[in-house]
Write a structure and sequence with these properties.
With about 170 residues, the chain is mostly beta strands. It has strands at about 5-10, 15-20, 35-45, 55, 75-80, 90-100, 100-105, 110, 120-125, 130-135, 140-145, 155-160.
Length: about 170
């Protein structure tokens, strides 16, 4: 893998440091890491995110670690309106990285769905894959692909609900 990103953190994945690398041999070095346990994973546009690795960072450089990006899978589904169940041809989907069942970071560009609302996201892994589905006038929804050791992944139907206005009146004693 020649172009990729490494995400790493010590205690909170939502505070992960995200670094981009480009190397013909897929090699990289993370400098200025704190001592102790660091969790990391790799992502690329072409392949799914790697499994998470937790390593112990010492004062001296340690052994080289290898992070393997799994074979890509395809996530398919269909986007419909929560009002009438009809396809939303203007919807778009975007892959995300995830950790512990929570969507973390985008992994690529938004992709338009087909006129019938169907979509296929490539470069999805069996674990650590999330997604977002959005359409103008509808609330965006996020989800996580559950681990699956078999074939491609079928998300089935994603229901988007229209946005509505909420009028709020704040009262109180001065």
């Amino acid at each position: 893998v020649k172009k990729f990103e490494i995400l790493h953190w010590t205690d909170d994945p939502y505070k992960a440091d995200r670094r981009a690398f480009r190397d013909d041999e897929g090699r990289f070095e993370l400098s200025d890491l704190p001592r102790g346990e660091v969790t990391l994973f790799a992502v690329s546009a072409e392949l799914p995110q790697s499994a998470r690795r937790t390593v112990r960072v010492e004062s001296e450089p340690g052994d080289e670690i290898v992070i393997e990006l799994p074979e890509p899978m395809t996530l398919t589904g269909r986007v419909v309106s929560g009002i009438d169940g009809k396809p939303i041809p203007t919807a778009r989907v975007q892959p995300y990285s995830s950790h512990g069942g929570q969507v973390l970071y985008t992994r690529g560009e938004w992709k338009a769905v087909h006129p019938d609302g169907s979509f296929a996201l490539t470069a999805i892994g069996r674990e650590g894959a999330g997604y977002a589905v959005a359409a103008d006038g509808f609330a965006t929804t996020y989800g996580v692909v559950m681990p699956n050791p078999k074939g491609n992944l079928l998300l089935d139907t994603v229901v988007l609900h229209p946005l509505v206005d909420l009028v709020v009146r704040l009262v109180g004693e001065a």
